[in-house]
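Comment thread on ticket #2218

A.B. wrote:
> Attaching the input chain for the structure job we discussed in standup.
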Amino acid sequence: MDRLEAGEAVRRAVRTQGRRWSELAELLGRSVVWTTSALLGQQPLGREQAELVAKELSLGQEVVEGLCLPPVRGAAAVDRSEPVVYRLEEVVQVYGSAVAELVAEEFGDGIMSAIDFEMDLRRESDPKGDRVVLTLSGKFLPYRVW
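C.D. wrote:
> Ran it. Output below, let me know if you need it in another format.
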């Protein structure tokens, strides 16, 4: 079983058992966004973490072994036709240039790290319909002149 197959086994178990990702985050002592990303195959997991989750979800040793493989990141790990993912790509297409320009204006020439990075998701009540609030927090990395 590869890393993405192990992630899919975890996803199926979460759904069929009526579990919540936040329960698994609490079990691992990590944020819910990081935990979900890790269990879907995009962050490194230690054997102890993989065994805790497998035990909690009654999954076999083959899932543990799959979860311990190196993470799979990027397009191979994402269904770009999934509506939420598609809309996030649309946000980057529409606002990406503006965000890059504003980062440069505020911080100077550089980038936001996706390695030293945290993300949070929360629900916000709104009379026009509940809102999804995403907070992205990445360390600023200035470009250096060599």
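A.B. wrote:
> Thanks. Noting for the ticket: The mean pLDDT is 95.
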